[in-house]
Amino acid sequence: MKNEQRLRIKTAEGELRGTMEGELFVFKGIPYAAPPTGPLRWKAPQPVQPWQRVRDAVSWGGSSWQNRAECLAIGGGEPGEFSEDCLYLNVWTPDIQPSHPLPVMVWIHGGGYTIGAGGLAPYLGAPLAARGVVMVTLNYRLGHLGFFAHPALDAEYTHGEEINNFALLDQIAALQWVQRNIHVFGGDRRNVTIMGESSGGRSVLSLFASPLAEGLFHKGIVQSAYSLPDTPRKKALETGKAVARHFNLPDATAEQLRALPADSFWSLTSPLVNGPVAIAGDRVLPQSSVSVFNAARQHKYPLMIGSNSDEASVLEYFAIDAAATIARIRQQHKFAWRLIKWLYDARDDAVLGRQVARDIAFTTMGYVAVMAQHRAGAPGWRYYFDYVSENARDLYTSGTWHGNEVPYVLDTLSNMNLTDRPFTDNDRQFAWRVSEYWLNFARDVTGSSDTIDGEVPWPAWHPRADYTMRFGDQGMAQIGVEKRFMKRRMQVFRLLMRTLVRLN
Fold this sequence. Notes:
Elements (H helix, E strand, L loop, with lengths): L1 H5 L1 E3 L4 E3 L1 E3 L2 E8 L23 E2 L11 H8 L12 E6 L8 E7 L17 H4 L4 E5 L4 H4 L4 H4 L11 H16 L5 E11 L1 H11 L9 E5 L7 E2 H14 L7 H6 L19 E2 L8 H6 L8 E6 L13 H11 L1 H10 L5 H28 L3 E8 L18 H4 L15 H20 L6 E2 L5 E2 L7 E17 L3 H14 L4
Parallel strand pairs: 2-5, 7-8, 7-9, 9-10, 10-13, 11-12, 13-14, 14-17
Antiparallel strand pairs: 1-2, 3-4, 4-6, 6-8, 15-16
EC number: 3.1.1.-
Enzyme class: hydrolase
InterPro entries: AB_hydrolase_fold, CarbesteraseB, Carboxylesterase_B_AS, Carboxylesterase_B_CS, Type-B_Carboxylest/Lipase
């Protein structure tokens, strides 16, 4: 009866009724903003209309329109029902009334800003919540619904106040909801960690760079964020006009654009998309996140950042031929080619291309970020994930694929029903060991911390020691700190990053 009573929660917007999963309280499909439909399409998220009766929070909210087949194949599973009405979040908590408020961890899903949802199996919050935190996942606007620029929409704002990053504003609205309401779920609104992988990691970097996100969270975890530059607003406006022409609207008005069916955008391809990045130059993101970190002007909050040993596995998704890229560099960029030969031992173009692409597009981003943290006077920790599940080591011969670390750091291997290559007890034990660092970061780290506790203490990064935590080594279950990891490559690619990173 006590648990039944505690399944009813009074939030600022109205009362919710959740469910129990074992000893955990779970609330799904909580609206954190008004549906961004009709005249609210391509608008900043608006407040939820309060409700009077108890609202059931027992099923996932709609996810943004996307390619279902792609999400099933590479995005983490079944994204559920699609709807433009998609601004919902989910909460897992071990205790509604703990003796002390619990740390809060907010997961922002990845998927290139085009696929994904907060209810996918790798992201379910129960395992970490059972270990003493409040977990939050969320849906947000994707694709053209989340990132869009057009002169007709710009005309609705005074100059300099234009908004194009609606997805980032959705994430900010979710964090505002956390500040208003997480205490009634047992969470500590003064200890909120945001975290995400791939475009979710880029979201964390963008929130560190956005003036509108200041004060809404207290630390961040960035997994496999790519170093691609954000789309300049000028280019996004040209893309927006091309999209309008595609729909036979060469002189489109805002009303005509908002009248287009919500499901008509997700299938558009290059050159009618902005790419898997945000738009730089609007009120949400006045400058690109990469440039903000290069200048060490990000919010001064603790940051953990890292990437995987075979991030180049994602290249096939973007139709990039690693070997052809190396051949092009050899022919067209003589100085860069000499540097590559100096930095790498690999002679096979395919292997070499995979390593170079990994380091330029992913590994270097972590180095840039921790260097920026040091310059800004905020602690930063850098990691490298190189563990491969025991039954898949013949498949992942080059290391950990893009995204494969997610069920380890979130301890969700048990949610993954793999029939041909099932996870082993040793895999699950490694997931427990790794995820403890994520939990300890959320529980204990502050702006004055210099170490993350764990079985091997993890010192904060600084230039002299240049510490990197390795989670796995050559696919095996080893955890240890390494000094000056890829130091020469990182120093070189930090300078070349903007020149060499390309999608085609």
